[in-house]
Amino acid sequence: MISFEHRVLSEYRIKIAKIETLAKSILSHKDPKSDESKGASEFLDVLINETDKFYENNSTVLSNNGKRPHARSRLAETKEWNENVEKYYEKNPRRKPRK
């Protein structure tokens, strides 16, 4: 049986991967001014907004497991999230992400 926490972490990982893949394809597109690129940029905004809402709804689970909002996120980091992430990395120093 998969726990709720594991499902939230897995879904967040998938959402971040979608954002990264789309952003990479937009940046490497041969014609950045085309309608296709503009549509992809608008869709990227939709994905980012969806991921931000997901993070807000599940912030305790995500921050307690060392996950911060994505770098493209428009969320302002809160003190509580930062404290939870720091506590997680103090308990699990080997899991600290590379910078």
Order of helices and strands: HHHH
Radius of gyration: 16 Å
Indicate the proportion of strand residues: under 5%
For the largest beta-sheet, the strand count, sense and barrel status come to: none
**Structural class of the helix and strand makeup?**
mainly alpha
Number of helices: 4
Assembly context of the chains: single chain
* Helix share, percent: 55-70%
Task: Give the domain tally.
Answer: 1
Shape: elongated
Mean pLDDT rating: 87
Number of strands: 0
Explain this structure.
With 99 residues, the protein is an all-alpha fold. It has one domain (4-95). Helices cover 67% and strands 0% of the residues. It has four helices and no strands. The longest helix has 24 residues, at 4-27. The protein starts with a helix and ends in an 8-residue tail after the last helix. The mean pLDDT is 87.
Task: Jot down its keywords.
mainly alpha, elongated, 4 helices, 99 residues, 67% helix, single chain
Topology record:
Blueprint: H1 4-27, H2 35-57, H3 59-64, H4 79-91
Give a quick precis of the structure.
It contains four helices and no strands. The chain has 99 residues and is mostly helical. The protein starts with a helix and ends in an 8-residue tail after the last helix.
